[in-house]
């Protein structure tokens, strides 16, 4: 019996059933030689996942994000299965006596699967590569067993640290949701708030104090947001939020794993909005390749998917098919002809691009016309509202919007400057009337006071006459 290990980097964590790690392809040492692994299953109940997740989500001692992990094991505990999968599917609370291998507690499904399944944590040692292995925050498994008060103390410290890490994530999520920059974060919370918070886990702070620290920071953020609400609203309205990196990575993974005709169709439907609204060219290329792949099996299905995508984007931008140019409208009709099943996938992709580009130009023309009319009507609220919509279009990362803006960039910028000047002048005029040294305001005030005083005297005079 000898100790083997696998070094890996985590790409994603799935907790919907067993805890599943999708990893960068790594090599597992076995008696039969090195085997490729792309997924690691931990078939353990959710209640036992705390320490494991803490290690996977922790940072290194130098403060950097974990990049690599090492999983050590005895080769006698591992069974390699080269053929089809021999085990039933696992549930989140399944144990080795239910579905696991009868003799081995670790099982490698080689061949196409490339999955390592682990049924008992005490068979392995999981560490952050380069960290000391006797630290519970960087180590889990059989080398982690301790006894008595020391184990309880470590558990208590880990619980507090996990609570602090959870609250730090909540605070950062609050900052991110509000669009607060790093400079603004320092202004609100100081530049060492995170380190100060983490230190509380090692200084015997009570849970009430840990909770109070979070509450104070959340309140400070809320106060700052309230004071800067108008500026934040303007920024959020004018800068459209594209897909996050996590959403892009998830979409790419979904497309990558789609193999069958049904999986390809489902993946294309679920990822098209993310691909269209993203500036990630690799994701767009991957989506088009999967369309070609599906088209080789079912050309009509791809045409249907692309047609639905086009109609959805037209509706989203308020453009009707009859708004399109004559030439593009003909191609739109060709794509939507249910009796025309001879369109090649590459041709359908080209038609989609032409429709999107023409639609982008028409949508931009509508925004320009609406803002020009608002300025002409001297409607300040409408000018500001339409300016934000136009600025949002300009700032978009969507391809067809960028293409449309490139053709009318000078015209758009002149109009936005005109709208900005109009709003500024209008605001100054309104504010100017109420400035303390404005004679017109004082004259108007005196006139109002005089009218009120005169009315009072008239009423009193009539009352005296009535009494007499």
Give a short summary of the structure.
The protein is of the alpha+beta class and 468 residues long.
Topology:
Elements: E1 3-8, E2 10-14, E3 19-30, E4 33-42, H1 50-57, E5 69-74, E6 78-81, E7 106-109, E8 115-118, E9 124-128, E10 139-141, H2 148-177, H3 182-189, H4 193-199, H5 207-227, H6 229-238, H7 245-257, H8 261-276, H9 281-297, H10 299-316, H11 326-335, H12 345-376, H13 380-395, H14 399-433, H15 439-467
Parallel strand pairs: 4-8, 6-7
Antiparallel strand pairs: 1-5, 2-3, 3-4, 5-9, 7-8, 9-10
Please supply descriptive tags for the structure shown above.
flat; four-stranded antiparallel sheet; six-stranded mixed sheet; 468 residues; alpha+beta
Account of the 3D structure:
The chain starts with a strand and ends with a helix. Helix 13 (380-395) packs antiparallel against helix 14 (399-433). Among the domains are: 3-144, no CATH class; 148-227. With 468 residues, the chain is of the alpha+beta class. The protein has 15 helices and ten strands. A hairpin with a 5-residue loop joins strand 7 and strand 8 (115-118). Strands 2-3-4-8-7-6 form a six-stranded mixed sheet, with no helix packed on it. Strands 1-5-9-10 form a four-stranded antiparallel sheet, covered by helices on one side.
| Backbone CA Rg | 33 Å
Q: What is the global morphology?
A: flat
Nearest-integer average pLDDT: 77
In sequence order, what are the helices and strands, one letter per element? Answer: EEEEHEEEEEEHHHHHHHHHHHHHH
Please count the beta strands (DSSP E, at least 2 residues each). Answer: 10
Query: Biggest sheet, strands in spatial order?
Result: 2-3-4-8-7-6
| SS class | alpha+beta
Helix content: 55-70%
The low-confidence runs, each spanning 5 or more residues with pLDDT under 50, are 83-103, 133-137, 143-154
Count of DSSP helices? 15
- Euclidean distance between termini CA atoms: 123 Å
């Amino acid at each position: 019996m000898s100790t083997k290990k696998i070094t890996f980097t985590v790409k994603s964590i799935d907790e919907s059933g067993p805890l599943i790690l999708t990893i960068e392809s790594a090599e597992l040492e076995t008696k039969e030689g090195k085997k490729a692994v792309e997924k690691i299953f931990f078939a353990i109940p959710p209640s036992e996942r705390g320490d494991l997740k803490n290690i996977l989500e922790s940072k290194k001692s130098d403060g950097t994000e974990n990049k690599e992990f090492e999983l050590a094991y005895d080769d006698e505990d591992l069974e390699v299965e080269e053929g089809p999968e021999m085990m039933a599917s696992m549930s989140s609370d399944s144990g080795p006596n239910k579905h696991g291998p009868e003799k081995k507690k670790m099982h490698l499904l080689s061949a196409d699967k490339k999955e390592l399944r682990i049924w008992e944590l005490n068979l392995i040692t999981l560490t952050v590569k380069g960290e000391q292995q006797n630290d519970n925050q960087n180590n889990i498994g059989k080398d982690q067993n301790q006894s008595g008060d020391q184990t309880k103390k470590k558990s208590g410290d880990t619980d507090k640290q996990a609570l602090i890490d959870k609250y730090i994530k909540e605070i950062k999520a609050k900052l991110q949701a509000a669009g607060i920059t790093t400079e603004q974060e320092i202004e609100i919370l100081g530049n060492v708030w995170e380190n100060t918070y983490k230190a509380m886990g090692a200084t015997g702070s009570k849970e009430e104090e840990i909770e109070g620290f979070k509450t104070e920071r959340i309140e400070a953020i809320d106060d700052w947001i309230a004071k800067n609400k108008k500026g934040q609203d303007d920024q959020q309205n004018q800068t459209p939020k594209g897909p996050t990196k996590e959403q892009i990575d998830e979409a790419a993974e979904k497309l990558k794993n789609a193999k069958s005709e049904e999986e390809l169709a489902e993946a294309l439907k679920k990822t098209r909005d993310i691909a269209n609204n993203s500036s990630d060219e690799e994701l767009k290329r991957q989506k088009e390749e999967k369309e070609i792949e599906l088209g080789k099996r079912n050309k009509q299905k791809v045409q249907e998917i692309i047609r639905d995508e086009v109609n959805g984007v037209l509706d989203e931008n308020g453009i009707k098919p009859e708004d399109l140019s004559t030439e593009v409208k003909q191609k739109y009709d060709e794509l939507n002809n249910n009796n025309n099943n001879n369109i090649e996938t590459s041709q359908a992709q080209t038609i989609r691009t032409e429709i999107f580009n023409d639609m982008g130009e028409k949508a931009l023309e509508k925004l320009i016309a609406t803002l020009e009319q608002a300025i002409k009507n001297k409607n300040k609220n409408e000018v500001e509202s339409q300016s934000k919509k136009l600025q949002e279009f300009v700032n978009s990362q969507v391809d067809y919007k960028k293409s449309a803006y490139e053709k009318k960039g000078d015209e758009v910028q002149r109009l936005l400057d005109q709208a900005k000047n109009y709003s500024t002048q209008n605001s100054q005029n309104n504010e100017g009337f109420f400035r303390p040294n404005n004679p017109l305001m004082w004259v108007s005030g005196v006139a109002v006071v005089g009218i009120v005083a005169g009315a009072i005297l008239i009423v009193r005079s009539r009352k005296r006459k009535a009494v007499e």
